[in-house]
Amino acid sequence: MPTYKLTYFDLRARGECVRMMAAIGGIELEEVRVAFDEWPDYLKSKEAPFDALPVLEVDGVKVPQTLAILRYFAREAGYAGPDNLTAAVADALADQYADFVMAFLPWHIDALYDSTYVPARAKHFPYFEAALKKSSTGWYAGTPDITHADVFIASSLEWLSRMDKHRDVIFEGFPLMEAHYRKFFAHPKLEKYLAERPDAVF
Ligand SMILES: N[C@@H](CCC(=O)N[C@@H](CS)C(=O)NCC(=O)O)C(=O)O
C-alpha cells in the first residue's frame, strides 16, 4: 500500500475535494497544512513543482494540480466511473466547473461580484443543472454512485458558498444542483469525515 501525503494550506478550498475523495475511497491520507506565513519560505524551497498547492506525494513522487490528484484517487478507489467513456463525461463536468472557478477566482469574488461572478454563474450553472436533468441517479455523470465530478462540484460549491455574500440564494433557479449538493453531503461514506474535519474560513 503506497503512502499518500497531501500538502495544502489550512483551508478547505481546493484541498477539500481530495480529502473527501480519500475519505469516501477509504484512502489513508497524511496531511501537511502550510500556514500562510510559512508559504514564502515554502515557495523558495521549491517543494511544490508548480509553485502552488495542493501537492500529493505518493511514495516520493509528487503530483500537483487538484484535478489530477482527484482523478488519481478516484481511479485508485474505483470512483472514476464504470467505463472510460463515463470517466470522460465526469472529467468534462469537473473541468467545466474548474473553468467557472477560473472565471472569477474565489478570492476576488467581492471585487468581481456583479461584473464577473454573477454572469459566470449565470453562464455555467445551467450546464450542471442540464447534466443532472439527464441523470437518472442524481449523480452528475449518471452513475450509480458518485464520481470525481460529484466530489469536485459539491466541495467547490461549499467553498463558494463560504465566500458568496448572497450564499442563501446561490441555488435559486437550480433545484437539481441544490438536491445534488444535499445528497452529496449526506453520502454515508462522508459522515465520519464531515463530523471530524477541522473548521476553516473557506
Ligand atoms: N490549477 C491549480 C491551481 C493551484 C493554486 O492556484 N493553488 C493556490 C491555492 S488554492 C496556491 O497555491 N496559491 C499560492 C500562490 O499562488 O502563491 C490547481 O487546481 O491545483
Automatic annotation (TrEMBL):
It comes from the Eukaryota. GO terms for molecular function: glutathione transferase activity. Gene3D superfamilies: 1.20.1050.10, Glutaredoxin. It holds the Pfam family GST_C_3. GO terms for biological process: glutathione metabolic process. Signal peptide: none annotated. This is Glutathione S-transferase. It comes from Pristionchus pacificus.
